[in-house]
Amino acid sequence: MKLRQPTDFLILEALEETGRNVAANLEAHTGKSRKNINTRLPILADYGLVRKIGPKERSGLYEITPKGEIALAHRDEYDEVDDFEQLIEDEMTSTG
Fold it and tell me: Which Gene3D superfamilies does this chain map to (predicted)?
C-alpha cells in the first residue's frame, strides 16, 4: 500500500467527516484538484480504503470503509512503520 501524503489522508478525512461524497465536493474540502482526487479515489478503492457506491457505474460517489477509518486513525504511523498495510490488517483482525 503506497499512499500519497497528504492527499490520500485528506480524502479519507473528508469522507469520514462528510460521509458519501463526489470528487467535486472533496475538492472543496481538501483543497486538492478534482483531477488529483479522481486519480486517487480508484487507487484508494483498490486498497479497500474507500468504496464506490451508487446505482450507476459512473456515479463517482464514494464512501470511506472500516479499513479506511483504521488507516486514517493510524496516519501518524504511516512513515514510522515498515508495513502500514499489515498494521491496518492486524487492527482489523483484532477489532473485527
Answer: Winged helix-like DNA-binding domain superfamily/Winged helix DNA-binding domain
